[in-house]
Amino acid sequence: MPISAGIPKRFNDLLKLRGYSRLIDFINQSKLPKTTIYSVASGKTTPGIDTIELLCDELDVDVSDFFSYAKKKRKVEYAVSIVGKEELIEAVDSLDVGEREELIDYLNFLLSKRNNGK
Fold first, then answer.
1. Which structural domain range is residue 89 located in?
2. Per-residue pLDDT tens over the stretch 8-20
3. pTM score, two decimals?
4. Which of 38, 55, 104, 114 has the fewest Cβ atoms nearer than 10 Å?
């Protein structure tokens, strides 16, 4: 899959991680044109690096983290999927600081999802 195919999903995932449960909430506070944000989120267009940089600035995310997400996501999913405490601790120890922050965000997201379902 080309990198560009994962941009809408990554952007939408970042919105959720940053607390935007609805796209319109981000659109309303953003300085970028509404049509640009919608087009990126829906995958109607492939944004240029300048647009990605602007989106990353508004979401307080490094551009390098935006594109290295797939690798980090696999590590986080691996760490979360392990059953034993020792293996989980070992997997978490192998993560760098940014990956640990993503793991915490992901775990908080799962907990909020579970708590909202009750």
1. 69-116
2. 988 998 898 888 9
3. 0.58
4. 114
